[in-house]
């Protein structure tokens, strides 16, 4: 059987689900949108939150202020808020050196510098909102196997869906960092391995975090602890993202719990007292993956398929969400001008507007781990000065916080927008 849709989103992870919601909200109701996800998505629930783990994921995400603004526009912020732990301050330090800096939300008149949410709850909230909105057809479990140019759009081969073939005006490729569709379409990627893995786990301390996130740079790589809401089994919880050599990550993922807690305590110190709990440990290889092409006639590559970043600055999803908001705005404009959604000139308009934000965010998340891991003594002094300089020079600190919050990017996009 074959069919047609105006827009097909391949991949319903955090980015694909956000895209579906955004396009459903801003595009005319006559635009037929379909989301195809390979993983079986939970059915709509009358009450409560579906337990959705996009990409089988047990991670947490630090949402920036720019993401909050986008969720507020989508009217899902209120539903999400109960699952969010506000970051009231960020303590940045370098192990064994003198520089450190404390960034406090209150100093900028904000209630938080960011918000930490467990991916399962974020995925659940997105899915619930998508079902409630009722604008997007959800096809799951189903996969887009291949895509070929056809009449100004794309012809898709599907597996697991009612239709085996679908013609679409616009294919949004959101199938993750190892994107099979990107490869099948012959889109080149630039990949730089960091020769590191991120070890991810939830950990429990003796003392409360008081909304403080820690970013600690060590000679092995950065270590971040993000504050989490309490649960019945653990009152003072944080989400750990610890960058390590692949061998150390493998060892610390598999070693006995006591050995792991001891190693982490040594690295992190006693700022929150004794570490006494650790949940499931997972490890992810880290590399910077950038798609050499993001738009073609009838195609846009999005999310991790377009750019997968080092998690040190917690920017990957926040950037992808700004891409999503920008694409939604450009498609709405284009449809109002009578253009087809896959019109390559329209898609290039999206890229032109979003590229400054992408370039700056990718540079920041690539530069930070390199700067802080370097063993050159001069660079060591420079980073100590940078850290203590953040504390003594309020304008520099404010600028850093604006970048981390994604606000500089939003200002950029407003500038680009007024420039056409
Ligand atoms: C350790 C770690 C910590 C992070 N922390 C943060 C943070 O604090 N803040 C932040 O902003 N970002 C963070 N990130 C980045 C963030 O996790 C990613 O940006 C985000 O997960 C990208 O989602 P995605 O939907 O693009 O890809 P994925 O999550 O990989 O989703 C791809 C989806 O596509 C589906 N799929 C694949 N192939 C097909 C097909 N052919 N047809 C249909 N469906 C298909 C898969 O089943 C999957 O659901 C972190 C990343 C890591 C590794």
Query: What ligand species are in this complex?
Result: flavin-adenine dinucleotide
Helix content: 25-40%
Write down how many β-strands occur, each being a DSSP E stretch of 2 or more residues: 20
Shape: globular
How far is it from the N-terminal to the C-terminal residue, by CA?
42 Å
Question: Can you give a write-up of this model?
Answer:
- A hairpin with a 2-residue loop joins strand 9 (143-150) and strand 10.
- The chain contains 13 helices and 20 strands.
- The chain has 420 residues and is an alpha+beta fold.
- The chain is globular and about 60 Å long.
- Residues 416-420 have low confidence and may be disordered.
- The strands form 3 sheets. Strands 5, 6, 12, 13, 14, 15, 16, 17 and 20 form a 9-stranded mixed beta sheet that branches. Strands 1, 2, 8, 9, 10, 11, 18 and 19 form an 8-stranded mixed beta sheet that branches.
- The chain has a domain at 2-67 and 122-191 and 287-418: FAD/NAD(P)-binding domain, CATH 3.50.50.
- Bound molecules: flavin-adenine dinucleotide.
- Flavin-adenine dinucleotide binds at residues 10-16, 36-39, 54-55, 59, 61-62, 143-144, 174-176, 180-181, 198, 200, 241, 284, 303-304, 311, 314-318, 320.
Per-chain topology:
Layout: E1 2-10, H1 14-26, E2 33-36, E3 60-63, H2 65-73, H3 77-81, E4 85-87, E5 89-94, E6 100-104, E7 114-118, H4 119-133, E8 136-139, E9 143-150, E10 153-159, E11 165-173, H5 180-184, E12 189-205, E13 212-218, E14 221-227, E15 237-244, H6 246-254, H7 257-268, E16 275-278, E17 282-291, E18 295-296, E19 299-301, H8 303-306, E20 307-308, H9 316-336, H10 344-373, H11 377-392, H12 394-404, H13 407-418
Parallel strand pairs: 1-2, 1-11, 2-8, 5-13, 11-19
Antiparallel strand pairs: 3-7, 4-7, 5-6, 9-10, 10-11, 12-15, 12-16, 12-17, 13-14, 14-15, 17-20, 18-19
The structure holds flavin-adenine dinucleotide.
Flavin-adenine dinucleotide binds near residues 11, 62, 181, 314 and 315.
């Amino acid at each position: 059987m074959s069919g047609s849709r105006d827009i097909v989103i391949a991949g319903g992870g955090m980015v694909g689900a956000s895209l579906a919601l955004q396009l459903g909200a801003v595009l005319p109701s006559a635009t037929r949108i379909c989301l195809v996800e390979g993983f079986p998505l939970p059915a709509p629930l009358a009450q409560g939150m579906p337990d959705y783990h996009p990409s089988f994921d047990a991670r947490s995400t630090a949402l920036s202020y720019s993401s909050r603004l986008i969720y507020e526009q989508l009217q899902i912020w209120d539903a999400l808020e109960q699952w969010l732990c506000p970051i009231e301050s960020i303590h940045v330090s370098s192990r064994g050196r003198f520089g450190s800096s404390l960034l406090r939300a209150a100093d900028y008149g904000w209630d938080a510098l960011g918000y930490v949410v467990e991916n399962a709850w974020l995925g659940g909230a997105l899915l619930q909102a998508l079902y409630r909105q009722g604008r997007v057809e959800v096809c799951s479990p189903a996969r887009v196997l291949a895509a070929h140019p056809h009449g100004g759009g794309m012809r898709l081969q599907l597996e697991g869906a009612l239709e085996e073939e679908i013609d679409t005006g616009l294919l949004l490729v959101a199938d993750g960092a190892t994107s099979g569709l990107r490869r099948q379409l012959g889109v080149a990627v630039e990949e730089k391995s960091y020769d590191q893995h991120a070890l991810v786990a939830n950990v429990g301390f003796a003392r409360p975090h008081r909304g403080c996130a820690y970013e600690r740079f060590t000679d092995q790589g950065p270590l971040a602890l993000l504050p989490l809401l309490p649960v019945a089994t653990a009152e003072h919880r944080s989400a750990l993202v610890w960058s390590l050599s692949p061998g150390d990550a493998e060892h610390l993922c598999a070693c006995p719990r006591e050995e792991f807690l001891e190693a982490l305590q040594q690295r992190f110190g006693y700022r929150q007292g004794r570490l006494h709990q650790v949940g499931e440990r997972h490890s992810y290889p880290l590399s910077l993956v950038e798609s050499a092409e993001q738009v073609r006639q009838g195609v846009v590559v999005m999310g991790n398929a377009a750019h997968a970043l080092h998690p040190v600055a917690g920017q990957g999803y926040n950037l992808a969400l700004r891409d999503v908001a920008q694409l939604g705005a450009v498609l709405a404009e284009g449809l109002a001008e009578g253009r087809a959604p896959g019109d390559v000139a329209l898609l290039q308009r999206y890229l032109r507007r979003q590229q400054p934000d992408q370039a700056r965010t990718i540079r920041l998340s690539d530069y930070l781990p390199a700067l802080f891991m370097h063993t050159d003594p001069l660079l060591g002094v420079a980073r100590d000065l940078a850290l203590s300089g953040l504390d003594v020079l309020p304008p520099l600190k404010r600028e850093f916080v604006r970048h981390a919050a994604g606000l500089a990017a939003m200002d950029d996009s407003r500038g680009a927008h007024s420039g056409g």
